[in-house]
Amino acid sequence: MHSLTPLSGNIVATLRDHASRATGSQRSGPAASSKIRGKPGINGLFLAILLLLPTLAPAQDEAATENAWSGRGALGYTSMSGNTDSENLNANLQVGWQQAPWKHSLTLEIIQAETDNEKSADSWTVLERSEYSFSEKSYGFGQLRYQEDEFSGYEYQGSAAAGVGSRFIDSEKQLLDLSVGAGYRRTKESDSNDVEAGPIATSDLHYEYRFSDNATFSEIALIEVGEDNTYFQSETALLSKINGSLSSKISYLVKHNTDVPDGVEETDKIITISLVYDF
């Protein structure tokens, strides 16, 4: 049986302490009402993710813990002036923890753009995914995704899903990973403020082809199919290593919603150039 790490133990103890205090106060005092600022449950949801990730790690020595963690940060910025003035900023941070049979990852992506002093893109996405390996190639997964995109026609889209996947190809040259699942999604339209919620079917694709030790082509795609809207996202990228930890990346990102308000384009296409640092 796995035991909790010291950090996890402290977190769990703190949560229990807060729960005990909350219970005690409810029993001794009159009922009180409170208002949650921001999106209902969102702050608590992602706080829970950050708190629970360490509890899944088995107790191990310090060296093994350090080797289990990995990360990648990417930052890109372009500026144009003349007939058209434009600025583009994109940032991406990925943090992962892997210790068989568990694998966890947390990704934050931000994209902003301005053309002729008018905002033309503004979005941020958080994705948490956990996998449990059944064998060398097959696994089960659970994931949470939350996105705010000012120009998508939706104020926010949040989903939770679980399913199974397989690494059909995993060699020195190629990687092909495909997963399918089902879950639940909640969205809010920007114009009408209508909130829609319901079941979804999901699928994720991750493909890589390594031309050499210094050049890798990748295709990462996801799709969420619901009764009211189908969301599709695809990133096609080429990563070129500059030195041991630093690389350059050029990518083509496509975001597509099938059901959008009048006057909103269904598809956004973004080309980014970034510097990538692995740690």
Short overview:
This protein is mainly beta and 279 residues long. It is 15% helix and 60% strand. The protein has helices at residues 6-28, 42-52, 62-68, and strands at 69-80, 86-99, 102-115, 118-133, 138-149, 154-170, 174-189, 195-212, 215-226, 230-241, 246-257, 267-278.
Can you lay out the helices and strands and say which pair or pack?
Blueprint: H1 6-28, H2 42-52, H3 62-68, E1 69-80, E2 86-99, E3 102-115, E4 118-133, E5 138-149, E6 154-170, E7 174-189, E8 195-212, E9 215-226, E10 230-241, E11 246-257, E12 267-278
Antiparallel strand pairs: 1-2, 1-12, 2-3, 3-4, 4-5, 5-6, 6-7, 7-8, 8-9, 9-10, 10-11, 11-12
Task: Characterize the structure shown.
There is one protein chain. Mean pLDDT is 82; it is low at 1-12, 21-43 and 53-60. The chain has 279 residues and is mainly beta. The protein has a twelve-stranded antiparallel barrel. It contains three helices and twelve strands.
List keywords for this structure.
3 helices; disordered N terminus; mainly beta; globular; 12-stranded antiparallel β-barrel; 15% helix
Question: Care to count the β-strands?
Answer: 12
Approximately how much beta-strand content do the residues carry? over 45%
Biggest β-sheet, characterized? Answer: 12 strands, antiparallel, barrel
* Unreliable stretches: 1-12, 21-43, 53-60
Shape: globular
